[in-house]
């Protein structure tokens, strides 16, 4: 029988004693359990002992966590937390350096346990740790254990970070700023400051003042991966705790110091694999940087702002510079306004008389205007080409630059989660972000040209605008999911992913969704293939039996005679002969020439055929090559040469002749027909499984029963 729910079978160890195997009654008080265990080993004063896990973090067992004990757990009888806390509290005050160091080392280990930490802190133990840090000048092993113990004790949130003295904090910051100090001490100091910064504005300002960005950059550039990680953690904590203005100033400074390029080269592309924690910090750094665009994204255009109006006018002047060079006095105010409205319409603004209205929607707000201006100033040739190319198209087919830019900016903001708070666990950063200072603007420049390219591929009109932008969104997201390492690589891949490729991917995904690509369905496809290929072979032979009218082409490539070829019903002889114009299907007896199938040696196609080897040029020769095939027959290897009337006939005849020769059918028509037949057959067979999920693996076959006594015994049937 299984043990009762409140009984757990465990082992208890003690140094120098034989382990006990007991059944722990979870309803029995822990003090009584300890008394029984101590009595079994003849130990007095059971209240001075406690149980803790023998493996892992070695947590003390309390009434609150005893329910976590599992069957088979191994526990250890040890000194109780209050006794241990008292012993270590005295030990860390010892004048003997070895005793003090050992006590601090033990303290650092035990402080991870919440029960012990509570006991130690209740004895004012943190005050002793403050004293060691504030008064001691040792930067060796003793200090490392002290800082480790302090970090672990503060993790339990029994004491506020704001209670720390300024002297203690400055001492910690001095370890970060020192050059000749043990890396483990610097790591612990950086970790302490990272936990301290978010707790209060006062602590943030103190740390920011004393630990400069230059100092953090120095730690980031070290070869010590752990120190690099802790420096990045503190940098992120400082950035997240800063105001928007402070964050912008810090990011500008970091840009001047080429932080992104350093991360791209020495962290992302380091020989060591990127850990989860560093990946999260890079995601946060990317998110913080991109969120600097949030203010512009949420700000509508002010039609009364001269600066914003000048930016808008610069778009028109850059695109239509030659037209704008006409002296101001040449046109009346009304004529000039009309000309500007016409040019803004060519730029793709919906409200060409007052284009500022198009930018009043926020998001994307002024961010869309910034992107358009950046594109026009940094890639003027591409900008002019985009605008002028579309202004010369028919009205319905022109791709509106401004409207596309506004919508594209919104799409990029959504894809890159601009304006959204950072996730606490996400690790999804884009490596190419760190390889480029003006990432968002440069990404826009690539994608707006992609919009124009996709617009042309789709032969879109104004009514298709939303459809085009949906395809562009898909192109961008699919390419970003590949994590390209640079914008150049992104540009190459996103341009390769054209509209036709998107349609293919959608079709494949639809098939997956319909479960036609599930493992059992694929196995069924393979099982059906031989049967359907045999059906295609029969159809090809049947077509050869019906025969086809061919034209003879003379040496001058003049089509002047007709001839007919067909296969005998028993598939043993090919009959052929000349026919007159207008004869559709001559009887087999009227065809005088014949070739036994048994005498056929091989099939030649295209350039291999003897009748295509004569020198010729031009489109007609190319067409003939695509339709030419020959049968090599007889001992002396005579050839019967064909020029199929259509590609369809070419496929059917070459397939049929390959079947007669005992070879595989190789034409593209075979694959097309096979796909159609497989699709139809699968749909018919899966009709009854509609809306039923098909598992990838078959369900397990149950084992046979141990006996068959449950079977009905017919010998005892009622009489």
Automatic annotation (TrEMBL):
Signal peptide positions on this chain: none
Annotated GO biological process: actin filament organization; apoptotic process; cell motility; phagocytosis
UniProt xrefs under InterPro entries: ARM-like (IPR011989), ARM-type_fold (IPR016024), ELMO_ARM (IPR024574), ELMO_dom (IPR006816), ELMO_domain-containing (IPR050868), PH-like_dom_sf (IPR011993), PH_domain (IPR001849)
Pfam family of the protein (one): ELMO_ARM
Gene: Elmo3
Protein name: ELMO3 protein
Listed GO MF terms: SH3 domain binding
Biological source species: Oriolus oriolus (Eurasian golden oriole)
UniProt domain ELMO: residue ranges: 307-480
Top-rank taxon: Eukaryota
Keywords from the named record: Apoptosis, Phagocytosis, SH3-binding
